[in-house]
Amino acid sequence: MGGRNQTPVVEFVFLGFSGIPNSHIYLFLPFLAIYLVTVLGNLMIFTLIQLDSSLRTPMYYFLSHLSFLDICISSVTVPKILVNFLRQRQTISYNQCMAQMFFLGSFTGTEAALLAVMAYDRYVAICKPLHYSRLMSPKVCAILAFATWIWGFLDFGLHTALITTLSFCGVNQIHHIYCDLPPLMEIACNDVQINELAIHIASLFVGVGPFFFIILSYVFILSSILKISSTNTKRKTFSTCASHISVVIIYFGNGMLNYDRPSAGYSLEIDTLVSTMFCIIPPMVNPLIYSIRNKDVKGAFRKVLER
To answer: Helix or strand or coil: residue 149?
Structure first.
């Protein structure tokens, strides 16, 4: 370690798809299409919720935050990836890299907490309907939404502060196509034990915590639904949770695939693609999930078109 070049790194080079000849030609259009679908789909959901008074309920209030978050998550990484494809040189400055990592981590952490809050909203609506207006008042909803943003930004503020203390000793090649904690820690030339400990502790609160809260909420929700005698009412009640459950499965499923897959056995290109899916697939499919089978959203869309 001590023999490494001590020149400070001012720019990083991404190696993610370097093994695919002319990768920029084949990947630019798919990434651009995914980004456009993500932004337009989420912007449509966000705008409809702001315009239609029938969608001004806690569930859609949190959905508007989710749509805005998905635009942010995708916009932190994909535009830079597209620019690099056009330049045919995969680079990012040190400061841009730190900013990209901070905002990406903050937004994804916020989304995990927001999904937990949305599960709590469904729990109150189904298990405590008589107290719903009090427990999910506009003031309470605003506090919960604000708390999710603080949750995500505080968490990754700590990780970013820790990563900026590391030295890279002239090594500037990242085995990825965007800046993230694990690839940066991989090329650091000093001890990363504190960083690793911070990640493990934070993952319990920011990742595992919200996930188990969601599971617990749905245990109570299922218990309440099973007590309903009418099959038709059961189906209608459960349908109000179906979209949220789908989003949770996709988000946490992609997260586990990204962070808990085997460390060996994949090429760099496959490994990069799997990691990238975590940032581009959930934001793209969330608006589709909430709009295709949602009568309220489709009704609001028709109203806007009629105007």
So the answer is: helix
Question: What's the CA angle centered on 160, arms 154 and 164, to 5 degrees?
Answer: 150
C-alpha separations of 56 from 69, 246, 251 in Å: 18, 22, 25
Per-residue pLDDT reduced to its tens digit, 215-261: 999 999 999 998 888 888 888 888 888 888 989 998 888 777 766 55
Bridge-partner residues for 12, per DSSP? 92
| SS3 label, residue 167 | coil
**Which region, left, alpha or beta, applies to residue 264 given φ > 0 means left and ψ of -120 to 50 means alpha?**
beta
User: In the numeric block, which tokens belong to residue 114?
Assistant: 């927001």
Q: What is the pLDDT of residues 89-101, one digit of tens each?
A: 788 999 999 999 9
CB-CB contact of 218 with 119 (8 Å) = yes
Q: Decide: helix, strand or coil at residue 303.
A: helix
Q: What's the whole-model pTM score?
A: 0.89
Structural domains of the chain, with CATH = 11-306 (1.20.1070.10)
Let me know: does 91 contact 122? Beta carbons within 8 Å. no
- CA 266 to CA 264: how far, in whole Å? 6
Question: What's the pLDDT band for 1 if we cut at 50, 70, 90?
Answer: very low
Q: Residue 2: its pLDDT value, please?
A: 45
Q: Which pairs with CB-CB distance under 8 Å and at least 24 residues apart come from 191-197?
A: 192/166, 194/162, 195/159, 195/162, 195/163, 195/166
Residue 204's identity, in one-letter code, is L
